[in-house]
Amino acid sequence: MGRKRKGRSVRNNKNQGSEPEELVQAPHSFVISKGIPDGNLTELTKDFRKVMEPFTASQLKTRKKNTLKDFVSIAGALHVSHISIFSKTDLGIYLKIARLPRGPTLTFKVQNYSLARDVISSLKKQMVVDEAFKHSPLIVLNSFSGEGMQMKLMASMFQNMFPTINLTNVNLNDVRRCVLMNYNPNSKMIDFRHYGIKVLPVGISKAVKKVVQGKVPNLSKCSDISEFLTKSGLLSESEAEDDPNNHVILSQKMVSRGNMEFGKSSIKLSELGPRLTLQLIKIEDGLMDGEVLYHELFEKTEEEKEQIRKKREARKKLKVKRKKIQEENVKKKHEKSNNKEEMHIDDDAEYYKEEVGEEPAEDLFKQKSLKRPRTYGFKNKKFKKDHSNS
């Protein structure tokens, strides 16, 4: 026989076992949905996965019987550090963000949301580039410097969900998206926005910019190219609409045409979606089940917290005790089944000795393995009978 051929997945995985260190250390994530099935919730989950690209399981398939333990068990092998769970109940839609494998867990209520397709369709000029999702977005936090333990935990959780950027060796061509988290101290709401970043040259006319960017101009109304370039009133898009505060001096050469190193360019943002308005409900110390460190709606006294802590410790001890009892019962069951087989053999031997009057042979009452007779591939009984007579 020839050598067994490798499977398709093994053949396609050329870099098996040789992941770079940056990829291993980058925070990875799972984004799933639970609770009442809903089409919009499923699409919102996919949109949030798109935001977390490329360090997320974009094609993750889940089932109703999957539990949190299933995802935690494979998180270590896949370098997954965070899990985001969208769930729908009768009271509304909730988002839980947890650090794997031991927490903490932040629970948010989704007050309002808009899907990515609705956001993009509402824009006059759409900018969706697949190349932008090959690199992680830039995270921007606003007004998260307030007092309180919950503010520090939220800021730390959001920052650690995305890879850190080293300003000394960052490549500006890789910064194509940004995620904005804006906290409103008055309403205690968090506005989540996802933008695409576009860099445009500044200081050239609209006609010149078309030529520089490789676009074919329409010269039907011009006698020659010079008339097209010297038309008055054709300012560039960045000069006509942008605020001078958006102008920056590039420290690197950009891939896009017209943007030169140490030249002035303008930063434009185009929303990609989804939009989310989040309200922090509670923070738990463990993974979905632990001591409540903060709760927005309820406040318990120290005595109530101590009672809850004692009940939680009692449940943990009871769980350990039940597990130990179960292991002992399984062990006793195996020992009992083995003893029954030995007793059965001894009883048969004693009965034979009393009836016959002599000791039985050693292999008389030993259990023999049941083996099917060899048919040599003949399934037809008549065929076997005829050949046995011959």
TrEMBL record:
<feature type="region of interest" description="Disordered">
    <location>
        <begin position="1"/>
        <end position="24"/>
    </location>
</feature>
<feature type="compositionally biased region" description="Basic residues">
    <location>
        <begin position="1"/>
        <end position="11"/>
    </location>
</feature>
<feature type="compositionally biased region" description="Basic and acidic residues">
    <location>
        <begin position="325"/>
        <end position="343"/>
    </location>
</feature>
<feature type="region of interest" description="Disordered">
    <location>
        <begin position="314"/>
        <end position="370"/>
    </location>
</feature>
<dbReference type="GO" id="GO:0000027">
    <property type="term" value="P:ribosomal large subunit assembly"/>
</dbReference>
<dbReference type="InterPro" id="IPR007109">
    <property type="entry name" value="Brix"/>
</dbReference>
<dbReference type="GO" id="GO:0030687">
    <property type="term" value="C:preribosome, large subunit precursor"/>
</dbReference>
<dbReference type="InterPro" id="IPR045112">
    <property type="entry name" value="PPAN-like"/>
</dbReference>
<feature type="domain" description="Brix">
    <location>
        <begin position="27"/>
        <end position="289"/>
    </location>
</feature>
<dbReference type="GO" id="GO:0019843">
    <property type="term" value="F:rRNA binding"/>
</dbReference>
<feature type="compositionally biased region" description="Basic residues">
    <location>
        <begin position="314"/>
        <end position="324"/>
    </location>
</feature>
<dbReference type="Pfam" id="PF04427">
    <property type="entry name" value="Brix"/>
</dbReference>
<protein>
    <recommendedName>
        <fullName>Brix domain-containing protein</fullName>
    </recommendedName>
</protein>
<dbReference type="GO" id="GO:0006364">
    <property type="term" value="P:rRNA processing"/>
</dbReference>
